[in-house]
Amino acid sequence: MSLFTTLQNIVPQQALSEFAGKLASSENPIVKRFFIHGFSTVYGIKLDEYQRDNWNDYKSFNDFFTRELKDGVRQISDKESGIICPADGKVSQIGQIKQNQILQAKGKSYEVGQLLADHELGKTMLDGSFATIYLAPTNYHRVHMPFDGTLVETIYVPGKLFSVNNETAENVPDLFARNERCVCVFDTVFGKACVVLVGAMIVAGIETVATGKLQRSDVIQRQTHNMPLKKGDELGRFYLGSTAIVVLPKEAGTTWQGGLENGTVVKMGQLLGISYR
């Protein structure tokens, strides 16, 4: 295990994330200016693609971090039966669900039912497919619908707050099934499908269009919904970076595009694969 991973086991993950959340939500002019300008300088962030292109237009660092894109700067693939990328970021892993397992990193996998916090739901994904997209701090941090579907349930799952970068994925077993997350469950033309928003170290919160910002707790929270959403519609957002995982059933018959592998840079809206249902 690396030093970076070991340190994550030592630090008070929850307390650190809550402290970061308070600072990130502060509307104090000095605090927000310090974090927005410091963050933008370190990561070289420009506002050309965003609706608000003046730093002073953001009321807090969280508001800045979840900034919205200008209309039309991301093209949503209109490929028939296409599955699109839900977020800007990099492919962590992508492929098929084999023997109930999703690949996390080379030599490491985890159970799909454990990820979804529902083993019966996990059974509906046997021999299906998945795409794991990592959002770095510099990325656009809203998550969008990869397919048409009706949101029927959200499952908030309390958990750890490990970092979700490559180094941690290679060293922490069952990483995505251990971290705090929100499982979004959809009815689609090919049956049940899911998008999982996974929290991480210093992530100040997860929000969906159906629930608003989720309140952290020590117990699983399940909510039912009936919200139709179209491919490309906003589904949720992260207050500081993390990972989105698309989970599809075998019935979707998904074939992923060639050339997608660990580290491939992707943009929200681009074609990831085709469902041949």
Question: Can you tell me about this structure?
Answer:
This protein is 22% helix and 33% strand. The protein is of the alpha+beta class. The protein has an 8-stranded antiparallel β-sheet, with no helix packed on it. A 4-stranded antiparallel β-sheet has the order 6-13-10-11, with no helix packed on it. Strands 1-17-15 form a 3-stranded antiparallel β-sheet, with no helix packed on it. The longest helix is centred in the N-terminal third of the chain and has 15 residues.
The global form is: globular
**Uncertain spans, ≥5 residues at pLDDT below 50?**
none
Strand order of the largest sheet: 12-7-8-9-14-5-2-16
Count of individual domains: 2
- Rg, Å, rounded: 18 Å
On the 0 to 100 scale, the average pLDDT is: 90
In DSSP terms (H or I, runs of 4 or more residues), the helix count works out at 8
How is the main sheet built? 8 strands, antiparallel
Query: What gap, in angstroms, lies between the N and C termini?
Result: 42 Å
Would you list the SSEs in sequence order as H and E?
A: HHHHEEEEHHEEEHHEEEEEEEEEE
* Computed structural class: alpha+beta
Task: Tell me briefly what this model is.
22% of the residues lie in helices and 33% in strands. It contains eight helices and 17 strands.
Summary tags:
277 residues; alpha+beta; eight-stranded antiparallel beta sheet; four-stranded antiparallel beta sheet; 22% helix; 33% strand
